[in-house]
Amino acid sequence: MKIPSYELLGIKVHALNETELMAYVQDCIRTSSETRVIGNHNLHSVYLMHHTADMRRYYERADLIHIDGMPIIWLGRLFGCRLNRSHRLTSMDWLPRLFRECEEQGRKIFLLGSRPGVAEKAIERFHARFPGLSLAGHHGYFDKTPGSADNENVIDLIRSWEPDLVLVGMGMPIQENWILQNAHRLGAKVVWSLGAFMDYYADVKPLPPRWMGRLGLEWLYRLVSEPRRLWKRYVLEPWYILFLLMKTVIKR
Description:
The chain has one domain. It contains 12 helices and 8 strands. The chain is α/β, with parallel strands linked by helices.
């Protein structure tokens, strides 16, 4: 499956819509002999990638990098990339479709992340909506040090479940570091970094209205909801993105 890709601000992204993303995942499950890693980019990940070596290695490892944030679409179009709103793919919009297709095709999914109890609550809600879906999970509050007893137990648990997909929601850059170190040991066809998706579906965090996401205003809702945790991400980090933008414009 040939998917267009673009490079901007020192990152690489793939341009695909929701239907193409779902087709890619199912194709990986059916045909891949190796574990595929799916990542995503938003302004926060762009900032982290330019400041963290492990994040750069993660995106070099990733087989597919979809766009999770309208600002990336806008920046891409500024540089002549053929991107549009359909290429913005955030899990809050497409996750129900993924679960429905996995339920219909008998796929197995493992959820890893969030605080103890959150994954269980999210699984309970997903099962209520998709009763035939094979779903298991574990919280993300364990010792992730390579070789630690906690880490080995989690890997053994995932392998024993024999999932087709592992969805990891620990927040950036923790989830990317863990995937980079352990994806090849999980026995899954697809390993995917998804951030706080379980927190939203378990009602631990307020879900931003979907229309705000389509307008590129989801960040504002999150900042107002969690100012103490997110102020740096949404107030300070964009200045670095502006620096990258100006640097690229000057080079051109």
